[in-house]
Amino acid sequence: MGRVALVTGVSRDLGRRFARLLAATEGIDRVIGVDVVPPRGDIGAMSFIRADIRTPVIAKVIAKEDVDTVVHMSVIATPGSAGGRGTMKELNVIGTMQLLAACQQARSVQHLVVKSTSTVYGASSRDPAMFTEDMQPRRNPRSGYSKDAAEIEGYVRGFARRRPDVRVLMLRLANVVGPHVVSPMASYFRLPVVPTVLGFDARMQFVHESDLDRVLTHGVLSDVDGTFNIAGDGILMLSQALRRLQRATLPLPGFAVGQLGSVLRQMRLADFSPEQLSFLTFGRGIDTTRMRTELGFEPDYTTAEAFADFASSMPSSSRISERAVAGLADLLPDSAHEPDPAGAPRG
Amino acid sequence: MADAEIIPIGTRGRPGRGSGQARPSSAARGLAGKPAATKAATPRRTSTTRRPHVSAAPEEVVEQTTTEAVPPATAEEEVRPPTTTRDRGPLAGISPEAWLSMLQSAAQEVWGEQWEPQLAQLLALLRRRLTGDYEVDEFGFDPEITEKLTLALLRPIAEKWFRVEVRGVENIPAEGGALIVSNHSGTVPVDALMTMVAVHDHTGRFLRLLGADLVFRMPFVGEMARRGGATLACNEDAERMLGRGDLVGVWPEGFKGIGKPFAQRYKLQRFGRGGFVSAALRTGVPIVPLSVVGAEEIYPLVGNLPSLARLLGVPYVPITPFFPWLGPLGMVPLPSKWLLEFGEPIRTDELDGAAADDPMLVFNVTDQVRETIQQTLYDLLVKRESVWH
Q: Residues in domain NAD-dependent epimerase/dehydratase (chain A) (predicted)?
């Protein structure tokens, strides 16, 4: 039996790449990409339908194409790309509601895979070190992307209750990084001088973009339902990540980082939402035990490897301090020079 | 006698030796060999070009003088005295080999005979830190910086200032998870840091601290705490750490213990809600009671500013006999003598995990731990001869 998958949010790079990959996957007959604007770039075997998921048109698409798998990737994190916070919220929340309403109507739909985010856990000083899937955020998000994500998850849970015959898989992904990723975190790391919150060091986890494709494909093909945290192994501290990038940092008090963030947002350089600021302050860790035991997924990249791959796509900077130390070490007589695995450049 | 009383001290503003005479004494004049150097007796007041011809060690002179270079006359080459201003130019007279040997002897002084590998190791460490090429665990614990920097800085304080004496180290398991439960005191949680040093130096294991959320809300403190292996005192984190087989330290009295008035010293406060016991029961690790004597006296808390504390969002603003009266000096802890006694472990592995959901059992174990610590405190106080030694 061939399967027909509908993927939302294919105009963006990650969505397009995943939909193309899914179309080439064995066991999937047809992949329909849906978005308000056509994707730019190679769409492979995917067929694109220009439809707005905020309108009931989406129900007709699902019914007509006899879709049995819906992959919802159209949750956007940046108001900038959508044209303002209002549009972003509408796309995220109203879009999800319409999509789920359409899925509930369509008897053909058997699988729903939602790409959510670990932002739903928030970031605060009261957080446990690692969030497991059944933990709640210590403070309920009040605004922005994390509130959208929390509301979307609420609607998805409601849908799962009303359609118990549909397998609902929700994936809470840590920050996705990679050479092609455009996200608030990626643009933050691409700043020439990176502002950090003075006196705080955030714990971070990353997922490589290829692991995102793999886990979504795995989620479509497997028969597991539930909510899962997805992240690469290990933790990178923000300071450590910036040292690996050899990027100049600008430590500022928290409120100043927020103000600088709004200036940067106006300049369209980076996006500093309040929840990103709290993430940069306190960081977050998610527990991925169930990803291995129940979902049966193993990421290719650890957090550090994913970040190294991301870093290698960026122009490397001068690394003056590192070169000075290395030069000093070279001055030492050879007998004292121990093999130094740390010497390998990190991009 | 009357004459002796009016002998002036100093020169009364006139130049010359301390004889009170305007002219230099004949002895002073005799020191100056040539007429050109008659001002030899007052070198500090003359310009640097007219310095006396002191034939000191050439290296020292070079280090101290900043004189401008005097163009030497080639005709004087043969007749010039052994040391001239010419040799006092910056860095003149020291060959690169001399510099190298100086650096080598300095390095040998610091690191001993094996200085080359030591220096190479230090540079490798520096390079690892600069490139971010080190590992932290999921709690943000950075073992390298903790061992090489934090503990190394705290160790002299523990050994020299508080002269921490540790008893019952054999009660700390050499491996596997264990929960060290201690009394809390001293206005500032110095006792947690000293326990960390003591445990690491006696067992070689890192003590992972459980801290209040205030710790992680404060800038710098929270960052340092995570780097040093601390995490939030919540059941999830405690069980996660204990389940991994870490040695975890907890101070269940919290701010009630650390911020209690000096008059209530060594009186244990309420032990929270017994969350630490249920964490130990769920993970089946032993509870090691620890009694700390001496920490109460480092900052005797004689007063509190509750309204200012509310304003700042902290549990208390301490007033000690020296703080805030002496400013930063008042922040120096008093050098009391510390005694740390680790008690016999209370085993929990015989009880199954379901026991953690039995509140009565949890309360009983909590009381048992509390009583053990309180009794040991009293015993240690009786044995202690003085607060200071």
A: 5-216
